[in-house]
Design brief:
Layout (H helix, E strand, L loop, with lengths): L2 H19 L3 H36 L5 H25 L3 H34 L1
Length: about 130
């Protein structure tokens, strides 16, 4: 992943969006979403190797593979929620951003319930 190229692209996109903002806010929002999509696509290739390393780590510790899925889904929820909140804030919709953030937190709690259940089972086993 070429982080320098991504950063330069982000800065150029931000300057371009700021220039367009004065005349057409709707176009600016579309440009922001497009630039975010380009950056995501640029980083998507790296995500495959990261996921592979996480799987190897979990395989080496003989941890239940369900937890890998939970971890990856949690990371996805965090990324999508953060991106959406940023776009909402950029378009001036701070209330929507905060509600999206709350929804992301609730989704993480729901997603982590199987891990919490496993943890309580371990604690019960240790106490008996």
């Amino acid at each position: 992943m070429d982080i320098i190229a991504i950063c330069v692209f982000a800065i150029v996109s931000a300057v371009f969006c700021r220039t367009v903002e004065a005349n057409a806010k709707e176009i600016k929002l579309i440009l922001v979403i497009g630039a975010a999509a380009v950056i995501f696509m640029k980083t998507a290739g790296t995500l495959g190797s990261i996921i592979g390393e996480i799987r190897l780590l979990f395989d080496s510790t003989e941890t239940d593979q369900r937890y890998v899925g939970i971890l990856l889904k949690g990371l996805g929820i965090c990324y999508v929620t953060d991106l959406t909140c940023g776009i909402c804030r950029d378009s001036g919709e701070h209330t929507l951003a905060e509600q999206t953030l709350s929804a992301g937190k609730a989704a993480l709690v729901v997603l982590s319930l199987p891990m919490l259940e496993a943890l309580t089972d371990i604690v019960k086993t240790l106490l008996v």
